[in-house]
Amino acid sequence: MQFNDMMQSLNNHYLLLISNHIPPPPAQIGCKRSRSVARSTSSSLRTPPLHLRRRKPEVNSAKYMCILPPIRRSRRCEKVVMGAVRNDESMYEEEREKAGKVLKQFQEDNDEFGVLRVIDVMQRMCIDHHFQHLITSILHQQYTHTLSGQSDDDDDDLYHISLRFRLLRQRGFYVPSGDVFGKFTDEKGEFKKELREDIKGVMALHEASHLCIGGEDEHILEEAARFSTECLLAKKEGDDDIRRTLEYPFHKSVPRFTAKTFVEKMRVEQEWEATLGNFASLDYAMLQSLYEDEIQQVLRWWKGLGLMDELAKNRQFKWYIWSLTINPYSHLSTERVDLTKQVSLVYLIDDIFDVYASHHQTTQFVQAICRWDLSVAEGLPDYMKTCLAVLFDTTSEISNHVFKKYGWNPSTQLKLQWKRLCRAFISEAKWLRRGDSVTIGADEYLENGIVTTGVPLIATTAFFMLGHGGAGDPTGTKAIQPILTSIAAILRLLDDLDATLGEKQHGKDASYVEYYLREHPGMSMDDGREMVTNMVSEQWKLVNRECLFSTTIPFLFRQSCLNVARMIPMMYNYDDRQCLPILRRQIMSMLSTCNENITSSALLGLLRT
């Protein structure tokens, strides 16, 4: 109850707390490349082929950079993504204004549940960020009415009540779940059997149950999850809406990836739905154009490194999708490209430790990073020197971008993050090489494994890119550690659930399940996997608590963290060929509709582990 009281008092200040952290609507984005993209083409994509650098291990970025020709944008075809639309900035602004008027009209009509439906559709179309301030104001009003008893609730309408509960919690307004859903349960605390026939309501209840934050007051949401899952599984045969609700609950899906399917599948019954759909189509097409430009930048950067022959795993799309998930907004284009480079280095260095280098080489490699001195790498293979040089230059590049934009330099903090990551890599490698893994406990393995996911490094980098963490910022990096730890634990545990598939790739990888079963010899493998699944569920509750209700961590960064957690299952859903078919389909849907340069065959190869 103490938490409930605290949240209710904090919610009164919610509008003030987030008003400075909501991203502005995108600037004019059309067929022409923005200046920021053009600048990044000339400054960030200049790294030489490997053979040009073998004589000088003491690499200075100013000496080895070569200027690449500017990227040319191909003419867009008329038919894009979800319908025939024109890439016209005036049309874009016109449709955006129409969409905003829809929301305002429902607000002015005092249609409480109608306006909730509009907000829900906007979120699912991934256009809600254009109207954040108005949406927050509307939900704050509904939250106030709910607490004061002024709401015109239909006590028997499970759909409306579940929808409002989910939307309020998603926006950070804490409503006790027991107060909301207690009316739908019997004396045993179970949901009433007659609700099983209200499929629309049960689907909304299932969506709401994913916002559980744990604790004694949240048992009813756990029961809601059990009840709704059981009901929907019994009726999902032949019903695509139910199947999608079970497979892709909104709160645990990446909105940018599901928006296109939602618009295509939506049954338009009212004019306002068509209005929102038109704007969503334009918005999707505009962003697709920008994203494809960024993909081309990343491809050119990677080819310029000269590592394609040395390191077999070319996964540029996978790297980029991580950064797109973290920073999806149009005004963060430079940040996406920079963060993709950072993500790529985590993957490459992980492969160096797991596959390519000897123990002696990795030890020397880590020493070079800890001293941040390329001369320490003398004697290492050229590809390892190249990785080090690119790491040092990328760190400087990111730091300079942050300094120019926000007036402070995060270089020292970024170096510390890299040193921490590489020390964790080498600890893991030592355990496996010396056979120490037999004596390592499950908790120690998980603690180290949280670091080796790269989540703390990448998310902290994104935190700095958004202008946070400087000397004058009250939100320090310590405040974000609980979120990052929980997200990294989710990644590590889900990755380890597929350890059998991973062993086919790496041969030596251990897993948390393996360590845990050593400590509990009477437990079966199935029991161990179930236990890990429950651990993931508990970590999600912690993520929800921090990302939804934190008053110290900026709103935009909390959304980035949520998106990382949402992305993880998609990144580890391998098929028998060690590919990621779901992720591949999502990328093809987003990027390849009108761009002949991004092909299905390329995606098939790039999305392998």
Automatic annotation (TrEMBL):
<protein>
    <submittedName>
        <fullName>Uncharacterized protein</fullName>
    </submittedName>
</protein>
<feature type="domain" description="Terpene synthase metal-binding">
    <location>
        <begin position="311"/>
        <end position="541"/>
    </location>
</feature>
<dbReference type="InterPro" id="IPR008949">
    <property type="entry name" value="Isoprenoid_synthase_dom_sf"/>
</dbReference>
<keyword id="KW-0460">Magnesium</keyword>
<feature type="domain" description="Terpene synthase N-terminal">
    <location>
        <begin position="92"/>
        <end position="236"/>
    </location>
</feature>
<keyword id="KW-0456">Lyase</keyword>
<dbReference type="InterPro" id="IPR008930">
    <property type="entry name" value="Terpenoid_cyclase/PrenylTrfase"/>
</dbReference>
<dbReference type="GO" id="GO:0000287">
    <property type="term" value="F:magnesium ion binding"/>
</dbReference>
<dbReference type="Pfam" id="PF03936">
    <property type="entry name" value="Terpene_synth_C"/>
</dbReference>
<dbReference type="InterPro" id="IPR005630">
    <property type="entry name" value="Terpene_synthase_metal-bd"/>
</dbReference>
<dbReference type="GO" id="GO:0010333">
    <property type="term" value="F:terpene synthase activity"/>
</dbReference>
<dbReference type="InterPro" id="IPR050148">
    <property type="entry name" value="Terpene_synthase-like"/>
</dbReference>
<keyword id="KW-0479">Metal-binding</keyword>
<dbReference type="GO" id="GO:0016114">
    <property type="term" value="P:terpenoid biosynthetic process"/>
</dbReference>
<dbReference type="Pfam" id="PF01397">
    <property type="entry name" value="Terpene_synth"/>
</dbReference>
<dbReference type="InterPro" id="IPR036965">
    <property type="entry name" value="Terpene_synth_N_sf"/>
</dbReference>
<dbReference type="InterPro" id="IPR001906">
    <property type="entry name" value="Terpene_synth_N"/>
</dbReference>
